[in-house]
Amino acid sequence: MNFGTIGAGTVAQAVAGHLVTAGHKVTLSNSRGPDTLLDVVTRLGPLASAGTADEAAAADMVFLTVMWPQVGDALAGLPEWDGRILVDTTNAFADLEVETASEFVAERAPGARVVKAFNTLYAQYIAADPRHTEGRQLLFYAGDDEAAKADFHTVADGIGFAPVDAGSLRDGGRLMQIGGPLSALHALRQD
């Protein structure tokens, strides 16, 4: 499985770092172009590359890591998703009233199998080694596609997190969004 990021900030670099350490190829992208990411991919190592958003979005599993106001622009004009997995790491800083942030994202990425994850953790907990002597960092995720959630679970477990299925995009998304009971819950699972 190959991976991509739409956005290349702190969260994208943290996730990419874990993936590269586990032996996976990752294509990072941002709105400023691949040339602006040369230092980042050099630091991450030879399994990391810089590409356009279209190139990153062609991966089997793509992490959307932009700030909330950029979600629409980041997803606009990308090629058809054709069932690839889009992991939404964003947090909505606006009242959506009728839908969760990931339902909003899913509407803007037709054909993607959306999984919500990494949004409940502060970046420092994502970047740090998720394995501790006391246990592994819990990582909540939600989605409507069971196969996509199973694939995500396998990847998250493989990079060291203790993944926990929080349910559907609507119900789990509500638990995970800012103000929800799982938001900013940093806990370890004892293995």
Description:
It contains eight helices and ten strands. Strands 1, 2, 3, 4, 5, 6, 7, 8, 9 and 10 form a ten-stranded mixed sheet that branches. The longest helix is centred in the last third of the chain and has 13 residues. The protein is globular. The two termini are 26 Å apart.
Q: What's the gist of this structure?
A:
This is NAD(P)-binding domain-containing protein. 32% of the residues lie in helices and 21% in strands.
Instruction: State the share of residues found in helices, binned by percent.
Output: 25-40%
Order of helices and strands: EHEHEHEHEHEHEEHEHE
CATH architectural group: 3-Layer(aba) Sandwich
**CATH superfamily grouping:** NAD(P)-binding Rossmann-like Domain
Topology, element by element:
Blueprint (H helix, E strand, L loop, with lengths): L2 E4 L3 H12 L4 E4 L8 H7 L3 E3 L2 H5 L3 E4 L6 H5 L9 E4 L12 H8 L4 E5 L5 H5 L3 E2 L2 E9 L2 H13 L3 E4 L5 H6 L11 E2 L2
Parallel strand pairs: 1-2, 1-4, 2-3, 4-5, 5-6, 8-9
Antiparallel strand pairs: 6-8, 7-8, 8-10
Keywords: Oxidoreductase
Organism: Nocardia gamkensis
GO molecular function, one term: oxidoreductase activity
